[in-house]
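Section 3.1: Structural characterization of target chains.
Under the original work plan, the team committed to producing a structural model for every single-chain target entering the pipeline before any wet-lab resources were allocated. The record below documents one such target. The sequence was received from the expression subgroup and is listed exactly as submitted; it comprises 214 residues.
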Amino acid sequence: KFAENGATVISGDLIDPDYSHENVSHIKLNVTDRENIKEAAKEIKEKYGRLDILVNNAGITKDGLLMRMTEDQWDAVINVNLKGVFNMTQAVSRSMLKARKGSIITLSSVVGLHGNAGQTNYAATKGGVVAMSKTWAKEFGGRNVRANCVAPGFVQTPMTDVLSEDTIKGMLDATPLGRLGQVEDIANTVLFLASDESSFITGEVISVSGGLML
């Protein structure tokens, strides 16, 4: 979506993506590896001169009821979903603050706002990134750097494709608009928060959930 709108996009992931676009470059990036992040941010700054937008979108799940959740399950999700956001934002924000312009968008979840049985670790991270983003909005606002969150509801992805019909029906019944979200619904909101059209919005959480949890 960003590439289609003319942005130069650097996509960072542990795995190679199955798509390409002339405006997109792909790099190996591990959000739990601070040295990897530091080097990537330095190379990007040297090549392109500046960093305008950061989208924190890396995330994993390792679900389980609290009584059965292992320390490894807790640590893995915290390290990627929460500390990974801290690592990336700390590395990239310095350049934005120096330039006195930037937008940081972090993917939260309705689970981070309302909780969900069996997802203590995931909910903690998604609530935590909201708190961090509100803090950054206050820290960075004087330098015209904004920080916001997007909280998706049930979105049709490969993760939801494997769910049972009964589970999907339950999701739809709980969503007033009566459908699952599409990836583009989320991308459009992130694009808005990255653009100058949202230049007076910071420290906010936009729920893109079809009315879930109303």
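The chain is about 45% helix and 15% strand.
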